């Protein structure tokens, strides 16, 4: 009997979860994702099916760096903070990687330095926010200017990366399928996926992760401190994580473009923030999920695909993203209004 | 002092001669406190008596400068909250200090969660949370988010969290201030169960009924000093309130002044300036009726948390009344601050810093604020007119420094209060509601403000005067509204036979 | 940052008899919130003058003023216009990230109209009006999101920051609309009585905004909201309408900035006009001594801040430093200003200084 009933109850459990106020914004994101997929399937399936592994493979190839950024940003936004520096850090890491590889440094060291540069910027922001009471917006804005300035010190020209090992990493992929239906998994996708999984485990299965959520519950994380949890160090770490993710993302972007360029990633922080908000995070803090943010990235990428398929100009993407953003913010607003009325 | 010692169960916590000084103040001076296993001990005292300071020493937030703390017979000195928790002392704070966005299980267990390596074992953690809840007689889904439950349940979750570490001592700091009757009953059921398990419970509340219902013993503080310790059953309410407030030992000053005022108070009692009928708001003040006449001073007395401030806020529209009607000279619009201001009802909040002064603005701007708000943002008060108003009030209220360009936050408390008074008086109100206008200011300034209030009333202003210092309420009011547990418990017509003691009796209710 | 102003007035009223009054005066001046930005500006200008003789020269050619100082003034106008609006928004405790995008939209609207109608002076006037009204409406939309819907200012204005450039592109249909209208172009590159038109516009707008907020009670009420919202509410101040109008003004000024900035080129490059200008605007406000958490604001500070910002950018060129390093200087300035405003750092520093100097009497209360 019980074995027969189990699938049913898990199904209903999932249904209940989707309607839980905590998950409702993410449900909205999923609905949006499905909607785009369905519309895409109906409109663009003349020659071959729109829905295909190839679609998702391409989506992830183009957006793995954004996924990693969004994951890091999710940590920060859950605590009620913001990190504007990530786009500039991506550019700086890309340039550093290119410069060091040209300078003949060993590949492993270059990659490690790239990630560490990101972590260093995160630490800088975290310390300013936690120990000098600088607002996250301003602290990360300063870090952004700093990173942009350093970019220009490293090089104002686009640096192509010709390093063989690096090229091999960029080219490595697992191929599936044949001909036009073939799709592949490359290194960036695997790294992004690994970052996502690690972030999920940290956020949902460790005390640190739950403290991150607690920090966003209001009153400046006061409750967390009174509960005897490490409020101060957690807040610093959140920015370190975001910076580290920006570092990893910088390397992924370098792998994607096989170059470093000082004007890379202008406005990329907004893409990341937008993806996180679309993914159901509350900018006031306290709510948000890395899996939601990942869904947000997919929605973001799919919008671009749809716009390309429709033959619309690329600026439509920004307008659409703005509209979607507005929609999600309004959705969150009504949800939180309803919630505060309930209690 | 501890006449019952040896009769009760063995002491778990013994604090002796606790003294702590903050710059300029001796917050606690030689205070004793004894908590016994299996007893609920109430810590009583008015605002500033030193209750929360004493609790913070016991929880390791503050370090005392003299005296000893013994827990279970061993001398201890807590350097941090962690030390206190390690010694088996758990605290549940007044506000629910949990994370509303986390689940019930997390709020109860986080910090003590069951782990497998670095990872939380959710199944085991939830099971443990369920057990802790069951111990308090609660059956909640540990997965549900905390903010999906009522405040009472959240408070119980906080207690469940406090019980996770199996404490010897549980401190409940004003746990009932946001609960309704049924919820309080639920809480008390749990408290009794814990007491019966042998936990020593320190209970702080300003609700006398609740204290009498739940506590076995009480310690009373006043002005940082120990007044006495009693078995609850052996102390009458009147004695308790007198001990808390301080017996009005000295003869009331200026009784003649009051007598003269009351005698002269031949007001026109046919048409009130302000009439409230059944005005109320759940969770803040029970519905009440009130008529306020021209030129009278109505004192409002009651202990902290009795609903004094809430009543005032409803009359002004700082909080929206949920029921009842309010009419100001026939104007029955629902009150908002601006509506009230324009029809001549003003309210000076008890929280000078948060709800009164605009610290970074000048004295002149602070005085102008309400007047300007009444006119709207575009019609600026002409500089000349404003200068006149400001000069007039600086002189009349003797505000020091008499510099209209000084920033208000650099003034002393008394002078800030006078600036606020000037702000309201500048609007030429008909009704002035003053909430603790003399709190935290020096004696001279206090007398000045009292004098000013009586003068204003003589000029025809109706004043509602809220204060926890009964002496001044008795001294200057013609009528005294007594509040208890958010109800208007009585109204006293002031006269020669009314004393602080007789007001205290009404406050205490059911005098035994 | 605010302590110096606090100390100012009482000191002036009662100078200590034993201290030379010159020193007291000096102290008073150095404690003024604009002292350090002005000092930095003066030092920077002088350094440029010393390093590059002729830097300070202003020449008159065809009755028009020319020279480096004039260029700096001209370039300061964009951050000034943006900063004035931003300053008011920040004073209420908000922020407006959309100003850069608004610049692009208003310019796109105006130039597209001219492109469609013709180069006449009347057309140019209508174009300006249309551009400004559009910007005003966008500002009002931001204000609607913030005040009526209660969305955080950051996210509410971010929506248009993201979508705004796309909208501008829609208006120009993806082209860089280039057109000719001498009247319109003169907004950016003309002269009035020998003074560059943008400088005149900047000065006029500064005076207008100052009159608007300081001759009415808007400024004081905005400050009171930003300092203590609840106390203001209890004093009868209604924040909603005030905040709304402040966002509308900010939008309007951003639109004007877009027209002034874009007019010399007559090209509506929606992707690049006003890019990152919102950050410059915020920086100019912060440099001018207005705290980001709202409250007291200084419009004169915005003027100083925008001159300082422009001079930094110019000095980088004068000193032959690669101009790309400019963000580095911006970062350093911003970090220094923020840390100087940090309560904790200030306490640590004044604690150390306090042992050497007796405590300031005004802070004793």
Keywords summarizing the entry:
heterotrimer, B: 512 residues, alpha/beta, Rossmann fold, 2 domains, 6-stranded mixed beta sheet, 18 helices, globular, disordered N terminus, C: 365 residues, mainly alpha, ABC transporter involved in vitamin B12 uptake, BtuC, two-stranded antiparallel sheet, disordered C terminus
* Number of spatially distinct domains of chain A: 1
The total of beta strands of chain B comes to 21
Task: Detail the poorly predicted runs of chain A.
Answer: 1-8
Strand percentage of chain A, roughly?
A: under 5%
Major sheet characteristics of chain A: 2 strands, antiparallel
Overall pLDDT metric of chain B: 84
How many beta-strand runs of chain A?
Answer: 4
Q: Provide the CATH topology of the largest domain in chain B.
A: Rossmann fold
Question: Can you give a write-up of this model?
Answer:
The complex is a heterotrimer of chains A (343), B (512) and C (365). Chain A is mainly alpha-helical and 343 residues long. Chain A is built from 14 helices and 4 strands. Chain A has one domain: ABC transporter involved in vitamin B12 uptake, BtuC, CATH 1.10.3470. In chain A, strand 2 and strand 3 form a beta hairpin. In chain A, helix 2 runs antiparallel to helix 14 and helix 4 crosses helix 11. Chain A starts with a helix and ends with a helix. Chain B has 512 residues and is an alpha/beta fold. Chain B contains 18 helices and 21 strands. Chain B has a 6-stranded mixed sheet, sandwiched between helices. In chain B, helix 4 packs across helix 5, helix 5 runs parallel beside helix 6 and helix 13 runs parallel beside helix 15. The N terminus of chain B is likely disordered. By secondary structure, chain C is mainly α. Chain C has one domain: ABC transporter involved in vitamin B12 uptake, BtuC (Orthogonal Bundle), CATH 1.10.3470. Chain C contains 16 helices and 6 strands. In chain C, a hairpin with a 2-residue loop joins strand 4 and strand 5. Chain C starts with a helix and ends in an 11-residue tail after the last helix. Classes of the chains: A mainly alpha (343), B alpha/beta (512), C mainly alpha (365).
Write the layout of secondary structure elements.
The complex is a heterotrimer of chains A (343), B (512) and C (365).
Chain A: H1 2-19, H2 24-43, H3 53-78, H4 86-102, H5 107-131, H6 136-154, E1 159-160, H7 164-171, E2 173-176, E3 183-186, H8 187-205, H9 207-215, H10 222-226, H11 231-257, E4 259-260, H12 268-278, H13 290-310, H14 315-342
Antiparallel strand pairs in A: 1-4, 2-3
Chain B: E1 11-22, E2 25-36, E3 40-44, H1 51-58, E4 66-71, E5 74-76, H2 81-86, E6 89-92, H3 104-109, E7 115-116, E8 119-120, H4 122-135, H5 151-164, E9 169-173, H6 181-196, E10 200-204, H7 208-214, E11 217-222, E12 225-231, H8 237-245, H9 255-264, E13 274-281, E14 285-292, E15 297-301, H10 308-316, E16 323-328, H11 337-342, E17 345-348, H12 352-355, H13 363-375, H14 383-396, H15 413-425, E18 431-435, H16 443-458, E19 462-466, H17 470-476, E20 479-484, E21 487-493, H18 500-508
Parallel strand pairs in B: 3-10, 3-11, 6-9, 9-10, 15-19, 15-20, 17-18, 18-19
Antiparallel strand pairs in B: 1-2, 1-4, 4-5, 7-8, 11-12, 13-14, 13-16, 20-21
Chain C: H1 3-13, H2 21-31, H3 35-51, E1 59-61, E2 64-66, H4 68-91, H5 99-117, H6 121-148, H7 153-172, E3 177-178, H8 182-189, E4 191-192, E5 195-196, H9 197-214, H10 218-227, H11 229-234, H12 239-262, E6 267-268, H13 277-287, H14 299-318, H15 326-341, H16 343-354
Antiparallel strand pairs in C: 1-2, 3-6, 4-5
Helix pairs in contact in C: 1-2, 3-14, 4-9, 4-12, 4-13, 4-14, 5-6, 5-7, 5-12, 6-7, 6-12, 13-14
């Amino acid at each position: 009997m019980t074995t027969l009933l189990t699938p049913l109850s898990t199904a209903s459990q999932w249904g209940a979860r989707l309607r839980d106020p905590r998950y409702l914004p993410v449900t909205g994101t999923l609905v949006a994702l499905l909607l785009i997929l369905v519309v895409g399937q109906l409109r663009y399936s003349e020659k071959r099916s729109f829905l295909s592994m190839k679609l998702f493979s391409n989506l992830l190839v183009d957006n793995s760096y954004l996924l990693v950024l969004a994951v890091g940003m999710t940590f920060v936004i859950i605590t009620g903070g913001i990190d504007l520096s990530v786009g500039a850090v991506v550019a700086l890491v890309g340039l550093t990687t290119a410069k060091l590889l040209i300078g003949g440094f060993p590949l492993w060291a270059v990659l490690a330095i790239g990630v560490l540069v990101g972590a260093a910027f995160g630490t800088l922001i975290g310390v300013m926010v936690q120990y000098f009471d600088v607002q996250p917006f301003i602290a990360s804005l300063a870090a952004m200017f700093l990173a942009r300035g350093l970019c220009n010190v490293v090089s104002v020209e686009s640096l192509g990366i010709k390093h063989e090992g690096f090229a091999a990493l960029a080219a490595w992929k697992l191929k599936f399928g044949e001909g036009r239906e073939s799709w592949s998994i490359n290194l960036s996708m695997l790294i992004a996926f690994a970052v996502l999984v690690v972030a999920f485990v940290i956020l949902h299965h460790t005390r640190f992760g739950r403290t991150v959520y607690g920090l966003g519950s209001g009153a400046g994380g006061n409750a967390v401190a009174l509960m005897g949890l490490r409020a101060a160090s957690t807040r610093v770490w959140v920015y370190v994580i975001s910076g580290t993710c920006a570092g990893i993302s910088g390397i992924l972007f370098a792998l994607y473009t096989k170059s470093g360029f000082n004007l890379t990633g202008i406005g990329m922080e907004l893409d990341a923030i937008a993806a996180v908000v679309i993914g159901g995070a509350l900018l006031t803090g306290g709510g948000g999920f890395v899996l939601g943010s990942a869904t947000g990235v997919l929605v973001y990428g799919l919008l671009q695909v749809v716009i390309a398929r429709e033959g619309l100009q690329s600026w439509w993407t920004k307008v659409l993203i703005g509209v979607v953003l507005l929609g999600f913010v309004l959705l969150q607003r009504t949800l939180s209004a309803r919630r505060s009325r309930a209690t | 002092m501890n006449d019952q010692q040896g009769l009760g169960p063995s002491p778990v916590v013994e604090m002796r001669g606790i003294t702590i000084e903050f710059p300029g103040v001796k917050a606690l001076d030689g205070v004793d406190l004894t908590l016994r296993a299996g007893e609920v001990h109430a810590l009583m005292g008015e605002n500033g008596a030193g209750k929360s300071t004493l609790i913070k020493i016991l929880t390791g937030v503050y370090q005392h400068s003299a005296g000893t703390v013994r827990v279970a017979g061993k001398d201890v000195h807590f350097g941090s909250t962690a030390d206190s928790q390690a010694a088996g002392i758990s605290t549940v704070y007044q506000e629910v200090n949990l994370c509303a966005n986390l689940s019930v299980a997390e709020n109860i267990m986080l910090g003590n969660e069951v782990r497998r390596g670095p990872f939380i074992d959710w199944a085991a953690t939830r099971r443990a949370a369920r057990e802790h809840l069951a111990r308090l007689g609660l059956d909640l889904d540990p997965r549900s988010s905390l903010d999906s439950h009522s405040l009472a349940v959240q408070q119980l979750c906080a207690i469940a969290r406090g019980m996770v570490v199996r404490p010897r001592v549980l401190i409940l700091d004003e746990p009932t201030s946001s609960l309704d009757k049924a919820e309080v009953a639920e809480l008390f059921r749990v408290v009794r169960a814990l007491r019966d398990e042998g936990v020593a419970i320190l209970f702080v509340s300003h609700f006398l009924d609740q204290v009498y219902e739940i506590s076995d013993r009480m310690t009373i503080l006043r002005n940082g000093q120990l007044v006495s310790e009693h078995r609850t059953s052996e102390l009458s309410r009147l004695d308790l309130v007198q001990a808390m407030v301080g017996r009005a030992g000295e003869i009331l000053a200026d009784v003649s002044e009051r007598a003269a005022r009351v005698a002269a108070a031949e007001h026109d009692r046919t048409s009130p300036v302000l009439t409230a009928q059944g005005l109320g708001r759940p969770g803040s003040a029970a519905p009440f009726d009130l008529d306020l006449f021209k030129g009278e001073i109505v004192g409002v007395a009651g202990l902290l948390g009795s609903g004094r401030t809430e009543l005032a806020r409803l009359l002004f529209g700082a909080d929206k009344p949920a029921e009842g009607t309010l009419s100001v000279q026939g104007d029955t619009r629902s009150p908002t601050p601006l509506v009230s201001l324009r029809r001549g009802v003003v309210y000076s909040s008890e929280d000078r810093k948060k709800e009164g002064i605009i610290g970074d603005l000048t004295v002149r701007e602070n005085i102008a604020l309400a007047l300007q708000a009444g006119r709207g943002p575009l019609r600026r008060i002409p500089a000349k007119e404003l200068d006149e108003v400001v000069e007039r009030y600086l002189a009349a209220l003797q505000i020091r420094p008499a510099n209209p360009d000084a920033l208000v936050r650099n003034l002393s408390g008394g002078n800030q209060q006078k600036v606020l008074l000037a702000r309201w008086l500048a609007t030429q109100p008909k009704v002035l509601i003053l909430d603790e206008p003399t709190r935290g200011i020096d004696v001279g300034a206090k007398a000045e403000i009292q004098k000013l209030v009586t003068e204003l009333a003589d000029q025809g202003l109706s004043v509602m005067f809220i204060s926890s210092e009964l002496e001044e309420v008795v001294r200057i009011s013609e009528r005294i509204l007594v509040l208890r547990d958010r109800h208007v418990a009585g109204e006293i017509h002031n006269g020669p036979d009314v004393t602080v003691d007789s007001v205290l009796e009404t406050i205490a209710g059911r005098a035994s | 940052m605010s302590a110096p102003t606090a100390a100012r007035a009482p000191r002036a009223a009662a100078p200590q008899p034993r201290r030379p009054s010159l020193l007291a005066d000096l102290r008073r001046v150095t404690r003024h919130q604009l002292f350090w930005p002005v000092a930095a500006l003066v030092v920077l200008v002088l350094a440029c003058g010393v390093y590059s003789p002729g830097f300070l020269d202003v020449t008159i050619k065809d009755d028009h003023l020319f020279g480096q100082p004039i260029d700096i003034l001209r370039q300061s106008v964009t951050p000034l216009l943006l900063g004035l609006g931003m300053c008011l928004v920040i004073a209420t405790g908000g922020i407006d990230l959309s100003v850069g995008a608004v610049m692009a939209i208003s310019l796109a609207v105006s130039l597209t109209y001219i492109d469609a109608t013709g180069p006449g002076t009347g057309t140019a006037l209508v174009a300006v009006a249309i551009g400004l009204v559009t910007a005003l409406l966008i500002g009002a939309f931001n204000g609607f999101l913030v005040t009526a819907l209660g969305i955080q200012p950051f996210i509410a204005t971010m929506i248009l920051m993201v979508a705004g450039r796309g909208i501008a592109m829609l208006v120009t249909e993806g082209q860089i609309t280039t057109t000719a209208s001498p009247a319109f172009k003169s907004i950016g590159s003309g002269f009035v009585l020998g003074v560059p038109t943008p400088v005149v516009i900047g000065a006029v707008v500064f005076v207008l905004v100052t009159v608007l907020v300081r001759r009415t009670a808007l400024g004081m009420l905005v400050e009171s909201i930003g300092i203590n919202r609840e106390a203001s509410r209890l004093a009868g101040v209604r924040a909603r309408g005030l905040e709304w109008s402040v966002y509308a003004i900010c939008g309007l000024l951003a639109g004007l900035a877009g027209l002034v900035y874009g007019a010399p080129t007559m090209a509506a490059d929606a992707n690049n006009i006003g890019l990152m200008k919102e950050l410059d605007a915020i920086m100019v406000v912060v440099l001018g001594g207005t705290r980001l958490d709202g409250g007291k604001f200084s419009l004169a500070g915005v003027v100083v801040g925008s001159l300082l910002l422009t001079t930094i950018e110019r000095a980088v060129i004068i000193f032959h430093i690669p101009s790309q390093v400019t963000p580095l200087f911006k970062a350093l300035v911003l970090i220094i200003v923020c840390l100087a405003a940090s309560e904790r750092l200030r306490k640590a520093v004044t604690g150390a200084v306090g042992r050497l100097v007796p405590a300031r009497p005004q802070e004793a209360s």
